[in-house]
Amino acid sequence: MARDAVEPMVRKKKEKIVDKMIEQELKNMMVLAKIKQKKKKRPKKKKPKKPKKIKLPGGKAIFGRDEYDLLVELIQHNIVKKLPVTKLTDFLGEFNYIHSMLDDIKEAPYDPSMALIR
Questions:
Q1: Where are the domains of the chain?
Q2: How far is it, in rounded angstroms, from Cα 96 to Cα 118?
Q3: CA 61 to CA 59: how far, in whole Å?
Q4: Per-residue pLDDT of the chain (118 residues; tens, 9 = 90+)
């Protein structure tokens, strides 16, 4: 009997407390939404990406130049040469017996010789 008399009053108090908490949370959410809108309104300026520097000796000399122009310059100075067309059978040589003895199953294989390629 006492429970039936007290329970409605306790529920009303709980409902008031929960309503106040929800109202406070809604106010906080509105404040956060306004802050986010202010942040979004600012347009960010995009800076153009700079090309990465070449980390090689003489990289400053070739930085920003076209690959084709570099190749033309190398050909003019006889650094790059056009080689004649060769076939795989042109690589003459004997079988590398020492190489076959060095092959170990446990280790990574060595690079094959020209005769092994043929």
A1: 59-117
A2: 12
A3: 5
A4: 778 888 888 999 999 999 999 999 999 888 888 887 776 656 667 777 777 777 778 777 787 888 899 888 888 998 988 788 888 777 776 666 666 566 555 666 666 666 666 6
3-state SS of 71-97 is HHHHHHCCCCCCCCCCCHHHCCCCCCH
Question: Do 94 and 115 touch, CB atoms closer than 8 A?
Answer: yes
Burial of 79 (0-12, 13-18, 19+ CB in 10 A): exposed
Model confidence, pTM: 0.30
| Residue located via tokens 């400053």 | 60
Answer whether 105's CB lies under 8 Å from 84's CB.
Answer: no
- Which pair of tokens denotes residue 80? 């790059």
